[in-house]
Design brief:
By secondary structure, the chain is α+β, with helices and mostly antiparallel strands. The protein is built from three helices and four strands; from the N terminus they run αβββαβα. α2 crosses α3. The radius of gyration is 13 Å and the shape is globular.
C-alpha cells in the first residue's frame, strides 16, 4: 500500500479520535472523519501491547493492510480512518478477519457499494 494512503502523524490520528465518529465490534473498532487534504482515503492501524508480542502484532497489521488494499477500489474517497485492533481478534483466521472488517466497514458507511463482498 502506498504511503500516501497512510495517516502517520500522531496529531492527525488524535484528530480522528477526537472527531468521535466510530463503530465497534468485539474484534475491531473504526474511528473516522472527513479528510480535507486528499481526494482518496487514508488510514492507520492501532494495536496495543496487550495483543501479544511484536511478531503477533506485526502479522495482524500486515494482514489488515492486505485486506484494506484488496478493498481499496470500493472504499469511499475523502475519508480518514483508524482501525483499532482489539486483543480478541487474535483468534481470527485471515478469512474471518476479512469478513469482519468488511462488515464493520459497511456498518461505518465507508464502502461505496453496500452489496460489495469483493
Amino acid at each position: 500500500m502506498k504511503k500516501e494512503y497512510r495517516v502517520k502523524k500522531s496529531s492527525e490520528i488524535d484528530a480522528i479520535f477526537k472527531h468521535k465518529k466510530s463503530k465497534n465490534n468485539q474484534w475491531y473498532g473504526i474511528h473516522q472523519k472527513k479528510s480535507e487534504k486528499s481526494n482518496h482515503f487514508r488510514f492507520s492501524l492501532s494495536i496495543g501491547k496487550k495483543y501479544g508480542n511484536a511478531v503477533e502484532r506485526n502479522l495482524s497489521k500486515r494482514r489488515l493492510r492486505m485486506i484494506i488494499l484488496e478493498l481499496s477500489p470500493i472504499i469511499k474517497n475523502n475519508i480518514e480512518f483508524v482501525v483499532v485492533i482489539k486483543p480478541a481478534s487474535k483468534s481470527l483466521s485471515f478469512q474471518e478477519m476479512r469478513k469482519t472488517i468488511i462488515e464493520l466497514l459497511k456498518k461505518s458507511n465507508l464502502l461505496e457499494n453496500e452489496n460489495a463482498e469483493h
